[in-house]
Amino acid sequence: MTHPDFTPKASHFIDGAYVEDTSGALIEVIYPHTGAVIARLHSATPAIIEQALDAARRAQTAWAALSGVERGRVLRRAADLMRARNHALSVIETHDTGKPMSETLVADATSGADALEYFGGLAATLTGEHIPVPGGDFVYTRVEPLGVCVGIGAWNYPIQIASWKAAPALACGNAMVFKPSEMTPLSALQLAEILMEAGAPAGLFNVVQGYGDVGAALVVDPRVDKVSLTGSVPTGRKVYAAAAEGIRHVTMELGGKSPIVVFDDADLENAVSAAINGNFYSTGQICSNGTRVFVHEALYDQFVARVAERMAGAVIGDPMSQATTIGPMVSARQRDIVLGYIDKGLAEGARLVKGGQKIEGQGFYIEPTLFADVTDDMAIAREEIFGPVMSVLKFSSEDEAIRRANATEFGLAAGVFTNDLTRAHRVAAAFEAGTCYINAYNLTPVEAPFGGSKLSGVGRENSKAAIAHYSQVKTVYVGLGDTEAPF
Ligand code: NAD
Prior knowledge:
With 487 residues, the protein is an alpha/beta fold. Helices cover 38% and strands 21% of the residues. It is built from 16 helices and 22 strands. Nicotinamide-adenine-dinucleotide (NAD) binds at residues 152-156, 179, 181-182, 211-212, 215-216, 219, 230-232, 235, 238-239, 253-256, 287, 384, 386, 412, 452, 457. Its EC number is 1.2.1.8.
C-alpha cells in the first residue's frame, strides 16, 4: 500500500520558520494501520534546542507587553483556523496515531480549538485584586506570566495536548517550546503554523522534535520557568525531579487506573456505554480510562453479558474509513505491552469473556478485550495497561466499592453510575481522584478543570484553574502614610 508522504518541510519550527538539522537522530513516523514509514524527521541537536529557547525568551517579553485583548485575539483567530482545517488535521492525526477518523474529526483538533478559543476569551480578564489595609495603605496584585514554558507531550492526543498547554500559557503572556512525543511529531508543527498565521510573533510557540533526552535537556535549561508534561508516571517522576533543581513550576498530567462504580439501581445501558467509551475509545489509549469497572453483584452477570454483546458491534479496521470505531494500537511495542497484560490476566485467573487476541496481518491491531471475575490483586487491576482491556470486578456494598476503588496509587478519574441522588454525590465526594463523573464518563469540556491527584499528577489543565498554573501573582504594597522606624 502506498501512502502520501507526511514528512513536514522540516523537523522543527523555531522563531517563526521551519528549521532542519539532519545531524539529529532519525525519527521515523509509522502509520499504525500498515506499519509503513510515512515521514522522517530528526531529533533536536543541542544547537536546535539552543535556538528554540533563545527565540522563546526573546519573543516572550514583547508578547507579555500586549494587552490581554490583543493576545486573546491571536488565540481566537488560531481557533478559527484550526476548525477550518479540521479535516486535514484529522487526516494527519489519524496517520500519526492510528486513531480512526470517526474520532479524530470530533475529538482532537476540535478540542484544541476549544482550548484556543476559551483561553483567548479569558486573556483579557486576567487581572489582579485590590486589598485594603487598615490605615489607608493598600495592596494590589498583578497576574504576571512565568516566562518560558516547556510543554512535553504524549502520543495519544498530540494536537490536543499541544493546544491544551499552549493556549493557557500564551493567554497568560508566556512563550512556549513544545516537544511532541517522538511517536507522533506531526500535528504540533501544524499548530505552530496556525499560531503564526493567526498573528503570533515569531518565537512565541516553537516546536522541537526529539526523544526523551531532548525533553530532559529542555527541563533543566536555566531559561525555562515552567514544565508541563503529559506522560507516564515514571517519566513524570524524572521530569518533576529535574525541574525541582531550578525550583521550576510544573504541571504533571500522568497515568491512571481509574474506577467506574456501577450500582444495582444504575441505568444499565448508560453504564455499559460509559464502560465501552471509557475502555475502548482511542483503542484504550486514554489516561483517564475507567479500566476497573466495579459492578454490584445484583447487576454483575447482566452487565458483563451486555458489554460482551455490545462489543460485537465494534468495527475494527482501516482508521481512514469513517465506519471504523476501533483502530490499531499506536505501535507494535504498545500492542505487545497490552498482549503481555492479557497473558498476565489469563495466568492470574481472570475470566476472558471476549477478545484477547492479536489480529494478524498488517498493522498493530488487537481485539477489544473484556475480562470478568477480576480481583484487586491482579496485575490487570493494578497497573496502567493503556490499551483496550476492560476489567470487571464484583462488589456488594457501597463502603466496599469506595474502599476498593480508592485502593490504587493513581487518582486521575473516577465514575459512579446510580439513580440514587444522595449516593451519587456521597461517592463522588469519597473518590480519591481529580476528575469525577456521575452518570457520565470521560467527558472533558474545556470549561472544567482536568487533572489528577495522587500519582496521576499535579496541577490542572483547562478552565480558569489552568491560569494559576501558567502565571504568578505579584503583590504590590502601597504605603500612603509616613514610614516609621524604631530608631
Ligand atoms: P512517556 O512518559 O513515555 O512519554 C511522554 C513524553 O515524555 C514523550 O514526549 C517523551 O519523549 C518524553 N520523555 C521521556 N523521557 C523524558 C525525560 N527523561 N525527560 C523529559 N521528557 C521525557 O508517555 P507516553 O508513552 O508518550 O504516553 C502514555 C502515558 O501518558 C500514559 O501513562 C498515559 O496515562 C499518560 N497520559 C496522561 C494524560 C493526562 O492528561 N493525565 C493524557 C495522555 C496520556
